[in-house]
Amino acid sequence: MNARSTPSIALAIFFALWSYPAVSLACATCFGAPDDPMTKGLNMAVFVMIGVTYVVIISMLAMFVGLAVRARRRTAIAQQGEHVTC
Asked: DSSP states of 13-25 as a string?
């Protein structure tokens, strides 16, 4: 057997095992069993990830609003001719 036929044989074995029906069946989460604990856990994980994303976005928005307010305040103080400190 030459070196070129080895990858093709391995690929053929991989696809043969991959197409075997018992291997390709969906789990309860992917199949959509609503009462399965795994499905409930996956749903909660998605909600937590969405919540963390929103918290980070809102925190960034609050930081930029705070920086804008601070810059406006510093500009007003500088226009009055006073010394601006940190």
From this structure: HHHHHHT-HHHH-
Task: Let me know if residue 84 belongs to a domain.
Answer: no
pTM: 0.57
- At 28-79, the pLDDT tens digits run 667 777 888 888 888 899 999 999 999 999 999 999 999 999 999 988 888 8
Pinpoint the alpha helices (H) of 1-86: 5-18, 21-24, 28-31, 37-79
Range of the domain at 63: 5-79
